[in-house]
Amino acid sequence: MISILAIESSCDETAASVCRDKIILSNVISSQKIHEKYGGVVPELASRAHLQSIVPVVDQALEIAGLKLKDIDAFAFTQSPGLIGALLVGAEFAKSLSLAFDKPLIAVQHMQAHVLANLIQPVNGENKIPSFPFLCLTVSGGHTQIVVCESPLQQKIIGQTLDDAAGEAFDKSAKILGLPYPGGPLIDKYAKSGDPHKYHFPEPKIDALDFSFSGLKTAFLYFIRDNKLTNPHFLEENIADICASIQARIVSILLNKLKKAAEQTGIKDVCIAGGVSANSGLRTEFEKTGKEEGWNTFIPKFEYCTDNAAMIAITAYYKYLDSQFEDLAVVPSARTA
Ligand code: KG4
Ligand code: ZN
Prior knowledge:
The protein is α/β, with parallel strands linked by helices. The protein has two domains: 3-119 and 305-321, ATPase, nucleotide binding domain (Nucleotidyltransferase, domain 5); 134-300, Nucleotidyltransferase, domain 5 (2-Layer Sandwich). The chain contains nine helices and ten strands. It has helices spanning 43-65, 84-101, 110-116, 166-176, 184-191, 214-230, 234-265, 280-293, 310-321, and strands at 3-8, 13-20, 23-31, 74-80, 105-109, 134-139, 144-151, 154-160, 269-273, 296-298. A five-stranded mixed beta sheet has the order 3-2-1-4-5, sandwiched between helices. Strands 8-7-6-9-10 form a five-stranded mixed beta sheet, with helices on both faces. Strand 6 (134-139) and strand 7 (144-151) form a beta hairpin. Helix 1 packs parallel to helix 2, helix 4 (166-176) runs parallel beside helix 6 and helix 7 packs parallel to helix 8 (280-293).
């Protein structure tokens, strides 16, 4: 049995998790509230908040797992991509522990980890996990990718966004509606009581398996502006239908490409991952599409969709088995390393 302590600090969540092999013993996440009033993540404030939270978050993760630092077999951290100052906090913390306890250090790529959240072993065996090769639609605040996962550490990107990420499409639409950051979960909330067929937004014609969301954002901006000109109360009167309709379009753009990817590859085990996979519209439509297409569908538990350290821990577990260790000279990188 291998116990790993993993740290995630790529953006505005300070998170720590302990796994024992593929089982997650603890998954602690401290979300930074400080950014709300700025309408987006402020990098310098994120780094400072990570510094404040990292000790209590790691302490709590160990306590919940019932382990001490001396029981840990390896220390893992998110190396890339992310905000460089934020990544540095987690990286240096993990390095210090690795040095102090003379245990291996493991560097993890955040997007690869989102995909592997689907491999986290359920404690009571109620969930199933996908078999290789599987397809994964990874949708987060910074990325939108379709990945063929051939083995835990072999992932091939076969489609990605050419401009905005799916999470940005949600957050920017929310901003146009005057909702606070991050707006994705709020659009999800309002959409629950709205009619997804009330308003129609364009689906971009993009080749291959790539995505584009910038045209949709512009169409949405003009749609809201024009309707507000004719009815100043348009937003308040129709917020649920507006949210349901824009959400339905983002979801259909994502799932149409995923269907195309499944047809092209012939792969039937299909997953979703990343912050946007917490969206209830996407989760429902994904399951529905899966039934129609004869897929075996997989969605990580809610807490493993948005940024978390459990996904870093499970990825580190596979890297440990493959002896993929780093020395103390390893540095984080803002771009995918
Ligand atoms: O994976 P994640 O937590 O962080 C990144 O790696 O970027 O994803 C964050 C993104 C944000 O854009 C946020 O608005 C979106 O995920 N998100 C959602 C929902 N929950 C989080 N978007 C739509 N509906 C949700 N329920
Ligand atoms: Zn993420």
